[in-house]
Amino acid sequence: MSAVFDPLHEQLLRGGVGRRHARRYVAELRDHLDDLVAEEIAAGQAPGEARERAMARLGDMHALARAMTARSEFRAWTARAPAAAYVLAPPLALCLGIALAMCAIVLMVNMLRPEHSGAASLPAWTPPLVDGVVGVVNAALAVLIGWGLALGAVRNRASAFWPLLGFVVLAAAGAALQVDVTLPLAGRPGEVELQSGFDGPLFASGGFGARFVVDLLVIFAAYAGLNVWRSEQAQRGGAS
Length: 240
Known about the structure:
- There is one protein chain.
- It is built from ten helices and two strands, in the order αααααααααββα.
- It is mainly alpha-helical.
- The protein folds into two domains: 3-74, no CATH class; 77-235, no CATH class.
- Strands 1-2 form a two-stranded antiparallel sheet.
- α6 (82-112) packs antiparallel against α8 (141-155).
- It starts with 5 loop residues before the first helix and ends in a 5-residue tail after the last helix.
């Protein structure tokens, strides 16, 4: 992307235009500018003068940006419905991830365990694997979703309000929803239990408050780091 169009590209993203539409629009303008420069050179203008005249013919960058930002069909869905994108969707994704992980564990155990047998009949690697999956779900799933949310917010140049609110809601949901799995024993079925993070002391190790603060800080740190990185890339002329 020619550097002359970098400010326009940035303005489009900040105006809510989807990344795909912004890239295509800038590419079309770049090609059109090349054609105008070629016309001016063919008319006898020196290359430098030809480029200046072509830029003048192309039009003001702010006007070109407004031509796109004014059209709702080119707006990203995160700009059209930021509350849904940043506040509602992440907790729903968390719940879906938890449900899929637990369904996978139940399906795996039922496939591995002979009928009417206990946990001792399961392969030796099953309990560590189940414990690992549960640990990831309880401790890392909300953070991973939050990192994805932060990356999307930075790439789409979203204003800080909705992503930050989304981080708070997601961290609270991750701290509140905790899963426990009990493998089946002889004469007793296995159990998948969705626990409340509010049980026990608020800021005890593993309690709701501690999990909420840690998850929120980790997600926010990634968001802040991505913003710093993007700013440095923009200063070097490498923003995309």
